[in-house]
């Protein structure tokens, strides 16, 4: 394939002039600083002797692109002095590690704040710096296992028990929430003149990906008679949830698997008609389709729909997608093939960088685009210690003076006008309400569809509405548009996520609204793009999960199944659970990127580097979350692939069955291996075939067999106690969905949840803000009902009571 073009940048990089010192040694820190570098920050990667272990990752050319490298031994006095030199001239510090390790290295709020008062320091831990889990090893797999995430995805595996999750959801969540903390602290520093300390962690980060499972568990516990939380499939593998039908996963006649995306009621109707099943909409037998009370009709409809897809080839289905604007489906893609997606190509979101050592490296462009181009030019990853000379240009010793600064919400005074549906983009602005932003949500007269996704009224949208104000109006009327236009004159940010062309048709596009408010930060956050071959298609988490590679990353062998109806059902279940589990899906991944994009826009404006029309798409964000899998070049290191049984990627990073449950083992270093061997005291582990990492890789299957036999001999809780005490990371797998687990454990609830008030639930506990600040505060509000603040907002705009009543009577507002 010929190299893609590299679109030119058209705007000033919003973070140019910001220096970031990167001490992180793991993926979440690297992804956080990659995002900052992609926005123009000067990121100085401080590497240990021999270089960062991330250099062995296939994603290194992207994770380190545009960064500088200095090799330092931070255990030596000389290395510590050099780091001090760097920090004196830095704006941001990013580090990863366990709380005690960070404290020993002097990376605490107190130590850093005293020496570098203008510095914004961010640390990323596994579990947070307090609470019952603070000292546990912070590896991705350990966090996911202990939290219950591997149990939540158990239906991916064709066996009983938890399933390994390959997508680094927790790392992405931690990295992006750290970005939110850094950017909001920098924005606050613009007025206060003082930096502060920011804490993010994998547990809180991954919790930001959940759409509504926390709410579902809350309702099921509080009102067990009114609503019951159930699995998507029965014990026999038959569909139980109604969402499985509009989000159908099925193979074509020629064996290509499709993920449909027909969640809106009108789109599901269009799907049935395209399938030749329109008669079901009026047939009494199919009454209430697809929300059936009985299992018989659920199973019958599933089989009918699976077979209908199999009546046409992929080419025939593609013709239907091209000619029916209300029908959409995605092919399941994986790894480097995701970069071939026509929409990514159209948007210029795939670039090829010529590396002098690696050759052409095909990779995602910047997550954010401004006026259709990347924020910064394509860049190379640095050679080790290539920028040691930076130490010679550091500022002189001494502490720069900084004024005292009060506590407060870092985004106090920021107002966001939100025009969007469902979850991915709207939850991006929701996250900023925790930091003090005011978000005014525009809804249709009936309210956002997400409010009624779950059977319990309003519960589907409970999380995405947190902290917001809602006004319901008819955007198709002149009066409705006039209200939105008047709001646009008064706000700082407009966030819209409509399909391509819809914003312009509604007169809420960037040109229209920025003509009314030239200082407006305008964010497009659609599923696919603002134009192009897929721009007008609906995008939901499962469809982006299929197109962006999330599903096949978790179940790479699913498509190898045969073609009988039972085998089709099996694969359909696997692929659905890989892309549609509410706790772990593409919507939440994208929402985190949307929040980062809004903050970049705000900070760029505050620094005199205002951007043009900002765009971040769900599909484009997927490539950044899966950077190790998608980065493409010759002789690249192999991406770890989960085994067919979905236990893990290798003997020492894997699920094992204990005598009464499961454990997850995560032995990543020579010291941890030595601790494991000493504690288990199994002669076979001391044999030469397992001596050294290379030998263990060569005999991986044999090592699995030895360890599987050992772990089967004792209970999971005992293995966790023994091996953690010995220094070999191993935890008992929690076999409860994470949201229920946290809600039913008082210590975890106290650490990871906060009190709030909701118009639906009254007083309740919701997931807490994912960021902690040393000085700034956060807030945790409940949700709102559709149109709750219509009258208040209109009054604020100057509408008198009689005019509001008239608009309501005429169906303009509700």
List keywords for this structure.
814 residues, alpha/beta, seven-stranded mixed β-sheet, 32 helices, 37% helix, disordered N terminus
Overview of the structural elements:
With 814 residues, the protein is α/β, with parallel strands linked by helices. 37% of the residues lie in helices and 14% in strands. The chain has 32 helices and 26 strands. The strands form six sheets. An eight-stranded mixed β-sheet has the order 13-12-19-18-17-14-15-16, with helices on both faces. A seven-stranded mixed β-sheet has the order 3-2-1-4-5-6-26, with helices on both faces. The protein is globular, with a radius of gyration of 26 Å. 53% of the residues are buried.
Radius of gyration: 26 Å
Low-confidence stretches: 1-7
- Proportion of residues in β-strands: 5-15%
Q: Could you describe the largest sheet, including whether it forms a barrel?
A: 8 strands, mixed
Total beta strands: 26
The residue fraction in helices comes out at 25-40%
Give the termini distance in whole angstroms: 54 Å
**Average residue-wise pLDDT:** 94
């Amino acid at each position: 394939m010929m190299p893609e073009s590299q679109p030119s940048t058209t705007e000033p990089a919003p973070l140019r002039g910001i220096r970031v010192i990167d001490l992180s040694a793991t993926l979440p820190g690297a992804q956080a600083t990659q995002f900052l570098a992609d926005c123009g920050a000067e990121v100085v990667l401080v590497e240990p002797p021999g270089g960062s272990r991330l250099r062995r990752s296939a994603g290194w050319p992207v994770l380190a692109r545009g960064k500088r490298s200095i090799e330092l031994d931070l255990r030596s006095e000389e290395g510590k002095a050099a780091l001090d030199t760097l920090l004196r001239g830095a704006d941001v510090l990013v580090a990863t590690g366990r709380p005690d390790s960070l404290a020993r290295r002097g990376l605490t709020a107190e130590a850093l704040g005293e020496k570098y008062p203008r510095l914004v320091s961010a640390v990323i831990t596994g579990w947070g710096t307090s609470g019952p889990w603070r000292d546990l090893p912070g590896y991705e797999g350990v966090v996911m296992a202990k939290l219950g995430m591997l149990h939540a995805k158990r239906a991916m595996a064709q066996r009983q028990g938890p399933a390994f999750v390959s997508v680094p959801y927790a790392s992405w969540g931690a990295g992006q929430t750290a970005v939110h903390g850094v950017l909001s602290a920098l924005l606050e520093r613009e007025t206060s003149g003082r930096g502060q300390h920011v804490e993010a962690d994998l547990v809180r980060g991954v919790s930001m990906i959940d759409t509504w499972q926390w709410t579902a568990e809350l309702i099921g516990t509080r009102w067990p008679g009114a609503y019951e939380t159930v699995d998507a499939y029965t014990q026999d593998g038959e569909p139980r949830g109604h969402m499985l039908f509009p989000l159908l996963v099925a193979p074509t006649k020629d064996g290509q698997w499709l993920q449909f995306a027909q969640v809106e009621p009108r789109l599901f109707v269009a799907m049935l008609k395209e399938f030749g099943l329109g008669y079901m909409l009026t047939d009494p037998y199919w009454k209430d389709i697809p929300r059936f009370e009985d299992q018989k009709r659920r199973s019958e409809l599933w089989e009918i729909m699976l077979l209908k897809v199999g009546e046409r080839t992929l080419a025939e289905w593609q013709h239907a997608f091209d000619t029916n604007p209300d029908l959409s489906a995605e092919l399941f893609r994986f790894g480097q093939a995701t970069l071939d997606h026509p929409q990514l190509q159209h948007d210029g979101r795939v670039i090829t960088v010529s590396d002098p050592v690696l050759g052409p490296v095909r990779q995602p462009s910047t997550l954010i685009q401004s006026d259709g181009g990347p924020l910064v030019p394509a860049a190379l990853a640095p050679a080790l210690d290539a920028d040691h000379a930076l130490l010679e240009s550091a500022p002189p010793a001494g502490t720069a003076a900084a004024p005292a600064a009060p506590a407060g919400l870092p985004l106090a005074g920021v107002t966001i006008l939100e025009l969007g549906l469902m979850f991915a983009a709207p939850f991006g602005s929701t996250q900023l309400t925790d930091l003090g932003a005011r978000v005014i949500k525009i809804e249709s007269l009936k309210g956002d569809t997400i409010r009624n996704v779950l059977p319990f009224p309003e519960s589907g949208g409970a999380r995405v509405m947190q902290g917001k104000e809602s006004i319901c109006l008819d955007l198709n009327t002149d009066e409705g548009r006039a209200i939105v236009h008047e709001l646009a004159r008064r706000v700082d940010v407009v966030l819209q996520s409509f399909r391509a062309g819809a914003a312009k048709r509604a007169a809420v596009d960037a040109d229209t609204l920025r003509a009314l408010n030239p200082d407006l930060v305008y964010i497009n956050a659609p599923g696919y793009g603002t134009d192009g071959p897929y721009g007008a298609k609906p995008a939901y988490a499962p469809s982006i999960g299929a197109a962006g590679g999330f599903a096949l990353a978790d179940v790479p062998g699913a498509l190898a199944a045969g073609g009988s109806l039972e085998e089709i059902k099996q694969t359909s279940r696997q692929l659905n659970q890989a892309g549609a589990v509410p706790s772990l899906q593409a919507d939440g991944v994208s929402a985190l990127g949307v929040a980062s994009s809004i903050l970049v826009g705000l900070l760029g404006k505050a620094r005199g580097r205002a951007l043009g029309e900002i765009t971040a798409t769900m599909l484009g964000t997927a490539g950044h979350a899966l950077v190790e899998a998608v980065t493409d070049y010759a002789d690249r290191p192999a991406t770890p692939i989960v085994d067919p049984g979905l236990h893990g990627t290798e003997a020492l990073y894997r699920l094992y069955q204990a005598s009464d449950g499961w454990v997850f083992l995560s032995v990543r270093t020579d010291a941890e291996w030595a601790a494991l061997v000493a504690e288990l005291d199994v002669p076979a582990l001391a044999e030469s075939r397992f001596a050294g990492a290379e030998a263990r890789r060569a005999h991986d299957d044999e090592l699995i067999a030895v360890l599987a036999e050992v772990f089967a001999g004792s209970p999971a809780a005992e293995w966790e106690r023994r091996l953690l005490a010995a220094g070999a990371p191993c935890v008992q797998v929690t076999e409860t969905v994470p949201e229920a687990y946290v809600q039913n454990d008082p210590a975890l609830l106290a650490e990871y949840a906060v009190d709030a008030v909701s118009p639906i639930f009254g007083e309740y506990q919701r997931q807490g803000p994912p960021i902690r600040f040393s000085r700034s505060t956060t807030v945790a509000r409940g949700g709102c009902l559709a149109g709750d603040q219509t009258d208040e907002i209109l009054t604020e705009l100057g509408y008198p009571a009689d005019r509001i009543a008239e608009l309501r009577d005429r169906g303009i507002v509700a």
